[in-house]
Structures are given as C-alpha cells and as structure tokens.
Predict the structure.
Amino acid sequence: MIFSDHLLTFITFLPTAGALLLLLVGGRDEAANNLARYIALGVTLLTAALSLWLWYLFDPSNTGFQFVENYAWIGESIGYRMGVDGISVLFIPLTAVLMPAVILSSFGSITKRVKEYLIVFLVLETFMIGAFATLDLAMFYVFFEGTLIPMFLIIGIWGGARRIQATYKFFFYSFTGTVLMLIAIMAMYWQAGTLDIVKLLTFKFPPEVQTWLWIGFFASFAVKMPMWPFHRWLPEAHVEAPTGGSVILAAILLKLGGYGFIRFSISMFPDASHQFANFVFVLSIAAIIITSLVALVQTDIKKLIAYSSVAHMGFVTMGIFTGNIYGIHGAIFQMISHGIVSAALFFCVGVVYDRMHTREISAYGGLVTPMPRYAVVFMVFTMANVGLPGTSGFVGEFLTMLAAFQANTWVAFFAAFGVILSAAYALWLYRRVIFGAFTKESLKGILDLDRREAIVLVPLVLLTILFGFYPAPILDATAASVNLVAENFANAIGAAPAAVAAATGH
C-alpha cells in the first residue's frame, strides 16, 4: 500500500538513493569502477521498470491528475505535491528508459572519476523526473533549476577541450531565463495565494497580468528548448559534452521547455499565449529554416545534429501555440520521438568517436564496408530525423503541420520547406560518413558495433519503427488531457462553441 500510494516518489528519488549507495563504494581501481557501473545500471533499470509500470497503470480516459501525493508544508500554499496526467506521464518513462542506455554507453568511454560521473547522472535523473512529476510550482522551480548543476559538472569535468567556455555559456543562458521565471512565480503567488499547480490551472489571471507572467516563463522555456535566437549555447554544449551528456541534453532537458509551454503558458496564460502566438510562429519558422541552413555547412557531426535539434524543436513550439488538439498532440509526440531519435543519433556519434577520437565529417567515408550493422542502424535514425513515413519522426511533424495549416497556411508552408532542408542536411551527412570509397588509411581496422553498443541502439531502432507504424500508445495516453487543454484554451480566448466542439470532438 505504501509503495502504490507513493509510486511517483519512489520513481523520482530511487536514483538519488542509488547515488548515495555509490558513495559507499571505495577505491579507484577497475574493480571498484565496475562495481559502481553495475550498481548505477541496476538502479536505472529498476527506475525504468517502475516508470513503465506507472505508464501501464495510468488511466488515459481520466483527464485529472493520477498517483497524486499531497503534503502541505507552508499552510496550503506550498507543499510536496506529485502527480501526472496525459501531458506529463510519458516524459517520465522516456527519461527513465534512456538512463540505463546512457550508463551502459559510458562503460568503455568514461575511465576517469567513474563513480563521480555516475553519481552526477543519477542525481540529474531525480531532478528531471521530479520536474515532470511535481504539482507544486515552487518544487517545479527547484527541480527545473536543479538540472543545471549536474549538467554543469558533466560538461565541465568530462567534456572536451573547450568545456569550460561551453559550460559557462550553458549556465549563463539557462540561469538568466530561470531568474525571470522565478519573478513570475512570485507574482503568481501574490495573485492566486497558492503555488498548487492544480489550483493554478483553474485560476483566471487578469489578461494584463498574464502578459507579464507569460514573458517571464517564456524567457526560461525558450532558452531551455532552445528556440531561435536563444539557441547559441546549445551547439557548443553538445560538442564539448561527453556522449551521455549530449544524449540527456537533447533527449530530455530540451523537452522541459516544451512541457513547460503546455503545462503553464497555454494552460495558465491562454490570453497571452493567443496574443503572442504569431510571435512564436515567426521564431519557430526561423528555427526550422535558419538552423537547418546552418546545419548544412557544419563540419562537425555533433554540431550538425545539435542544430538539427533546434530545428525540430521549432515544430514543437509551432504545434503548441496553435492551441488545437492536432498541434498539442503533435508537439508531445514530436518531443517523445525526438527524445528517442536524437538520443540514438548522439549514441551513433559516440560509437565512431570512441574508435577514431574525431567528430569531423571529413575524417570518415565508406563506413558501410567495415561497419554494415552500424550503417543500417544509422540509416534508420537518419530517416526518422528526416520524418520518413513509417518512422516516429513522421507522425509528430505531420500533426504539427496539420495544426499549423488550420492556424496559418503560410506557417505550414514554411514548415514544410524546413522538412525539405532537414532531408538535405541529414542525407548529406549520411552520404559523407557511410557511403563513398573506403580509402582512408586512418579507418583501416575500424570495428562494427559490439554487443554493448547493440544493446543500447537496437531497442531505440525498434521503438522508432514501432511508434512510426503504431503511434496509438502515445496518442491514446495523451488524448483526454490534450483535448481538455485545447478545449480550455479555446474557451479562454473566446472561441465560438461550435469551433470548440469541432476542435475537441465533443
């Protein structure tokens, strides 16, 4: 009974318990490092299993929050509140399932300060899951801001040659945005008298107040996603971060921005969101087109994929601020899909980097000859990144463009042009790395995927194809909550009842 009533707490803090356990592991020899690795792997596997159990128990027909834990700390205003609905429930399994892959991928690549590396990642997992699971705005800020510290350490200690510059740029951009969000949170408390997210979702903020609150939250979420032109920190952070850091940065941390836009911006500040929708559309299209063009001229594989992430997040913000069910559905699906595909792409980069210690595209070519299994796996994720039908990347992009077409046909047109550009840079990268003559002497003797790498990548291949052909598990889990958000948004901005009924199917 205690376990079932506190399932979210167990999932959230089990990684931290594992981090504390790792503190008891003594020694710096290989035996101690291996013990630490297997403890961390076991903890993350257990957390992943619990998160999938959470998804299994979740009732998708219920529009309210489930698995709720509510313990007031300061009156009824601030407390320990946990719960999930269709907007948040999928991000917890996404986070928890990727973490064992991150730990496993580090077995061969991280050889210094191994225990500390694993501890930092386990603490980071708690902060990420907590941000998606909390129902208290003060706790959300703590979890959201708390992710900066582990990622600061991951890049700054285990990163590349320019890691210090990348670390401080990442921290400066992110911290500046969250300070503005903190001011907005305090203003919300003065207005509503509570930081309970469930109550705040039903509280009607005056339109003029919504504008300022929206700007405060936008500053933080736009940097976190990141939206153009607040993306300048991301490519450098990706290039300097170790493989695990890049995976979590792209797959999970960026999604906190999109989740925040749905949970807070359009749900709590609908008037302001409607007012700023065209502004967000312009930034989204700029992200899709400009960063795709920038990706075309990159010489570093990681930096190209980093710019690709900015472009794909443009589809997410475009879909969210249409405010209709197709856009919000598509945005959530795109975030889940991108979490899988971007993680896999960075894992693929890590595979060749561990062998050759370079990410320069010009250093490769003809890898299909010595690495046929790698070529197939990389092809699947490249096609998903392009949005090929039959892969998970297609579903989210299609839904967001369908929503954009309903809102503004020009937005949909430019977004479709961005899809063409994504095919250009993704296929260009694949051709340069995988095809061509296998003539470079430095590549002689390069080995194909080993068993550990296959264990990491093959499940991601299966998920990419499964959700491409059968997206129902994701769409069904989010349907009721997305319909409610879209209906509330339409009612709040004064849409006609008939339009509301048409948009939500009621």
The chain is about 75% helix and 5% strand.
